[in-house]
Design goal:
The chain is mainly beta. Helices cover 9% and strands 44% of the residues.
């Protein structure tokens, strides 16, 4: 078994008693039938540009798995003199540890393609994580379900755009789309998914549709008696989010079916829920579906009618890949173009040649590391088995050269 530390964020906010109200502006489209919002897709996250009070440009993760909109860095709120009237606990990413946030009322938020909106938001009291290290781009907040829940949201991953439709005038898409019923609870969409486990058993599970998770599937293996770990798995940290690191396992399931769309050999994270959450009907679920699976389709979520429409994209059935080097790389520096080895998987190719946590990546495949984005580096480390990787790292005053070949870790 190997240890792993996936670099992803599970931004799951479960604060049903948060004291937040609905958006002050009920017609987010301002009378229009639709609006298009561009986004960038970085490190398996949908990142949109927003402005607070028309003066503060920030980057937020578009997160269907978050109940509320949240600003992660309090200094930005203080810069525009935002006032607070409540301090509340919210559940962190592991659904057990509490972190604290401040409630700000009637904050003006503007996205490209939309008129400014007045919305209540949460402001994280202390910034628990540095998302820039994980995504390779600045990230300052989370755009949650309270902002767009009265619309129909179309996610076009290929063209990197969100299209918000007026729910009253929205017409169902054509026969190329599969209709999938959903349940919307606390501004978050859930659906029923058939999952075939590696032991051959098929179970129907309730999963959260979560664009704030940079993984294919996560299952809470203590939420259903049939959910057991496969024989082949990796043990360690699944990721980092609000509340700290998330411990668990990574393996595969035989298949996942959402409506009539089937995915085989899906890379799956396994994580235990706390007993309190398991007993709560308000937040109970068996797991989540994240961007690395959703990205393979066109996705339309009708929050009002509780219906989701899915259209498989070209190559949607391709194999789910993961890192084959054992290197966990983060972005640092003012311009986020300096790269450091955060962690290394035990018994991996990188560990076997002597690369160490804390080494600074100087060159990769003969090119300066600064020439790459974080996504490009990770793509190289997911290439086919047997590919030779050449790296140069700085360790203290030394520059060290290493070579290794990629191999399948799971």
């Amino acid at each position: 078994m190997y240890r792993i530390c996936f670099v992803l964020i599970l931004a799951i906010l479960c604060s049903s008693n948060s004291g937040l109200t609905q958006n002050m502006t009920f017609d987010i489209l301002n009378g229009k039938d639709r609006a298009t919002i561009p986004f960038s897709y970085r490190h398996n996250f949908i990142i949109v540009e927003v402005q607070l009070f028309g003066v503060l440009p920030l980057s937020f993760i578009f997160d269907t798995g978050a109940e509320n909109t949240m600003l992660l860095t309090r200094e930005f709120a203080d810069f525009v003199d935002i006032e607070y009237d409540l301090r509340i606990p919210i559940l962190g990413s592991d659904m057990s540890q509490k972190v604290y946030a401040l409630v700000a009322r009637s904050v003006e938020i503007e996205l490209t393609g939309l008129a400014p909106q007045k919305s209540d938001i949460l402001v994280l009291e202390e910034n628990e994580i540095n998302l820039a290290e994980i995504t390779g781009v600045p990230v300052h907040g989370i755009l949650g379900g309270n902002f767009f829940k009265n619309t129909v949201v179309e996610i076009d991953y290929k063209r990197q755009r969100l299209i918000l439709h007026n729910s009253e005038n929205f017409k169902e898409p054509g026969n190329a789309f599969i209709r999938v019923p959903i349940e919307v609870s606390h501004n978050k969409p859930y659906t029923r998914v058939k999952t075939k486990l590696m032991n051959g058993e098929t179970v129907e599970l309730k999963l959260l549709i979560d664009t704030g998770a940079g993984l294919p599937i996560l299952l809470h293996n203590n939420s259903h008696e049939s959910l057991i770990l496969p024989d082949d798995y990796i043990r360690g940290r699944l990721g980092v989010g609000l509340g700290g690191f998330i411990e668990g396992y990574v393996g595969r399931v035989e298949s996942v079916e959402i409506g009539e769309i089937k995915f085989d050999q899906v890379l799956t994270s396994f994580h235990d829920l706390g007993a309190t959450i398991l007993e709560s009907s308000e937040v109970f679920r068996n797991g989540i579906v994240g961007n690395r699976l959703l990205y393979r389709m066109e996705v339309i979520i009708d929050y009002v009618r509780e219906m989701m429409y899915l259209k498989p994209g070209r190559g949607y059935a391709r194999k789910f890949k993961m890192d084959r080097s054992g290197l966990i790389v983060i972005a640092t520096g003012i311009n986020l173009d300096e790269y450091v080895i955060k962690d290394i998987l035990d018994d991996s190719p990188a560990a076997e040649v002597g690369i160490q946590p804390g080494d600074k990546l100087i060159r990769l495949q003969g090119l300066r590391a600064k020439a790459f984005t974080l996504d490009q580096i990770n793509n190289i480390l997911q290439k086919k088995e047997g590919k030779r990787i050449r790296v140069v790292v700085r360790r203290g005053d030394q520059q060290l050269k290493f070579k290794f070949r990629l191999r399948q870790l799971i």
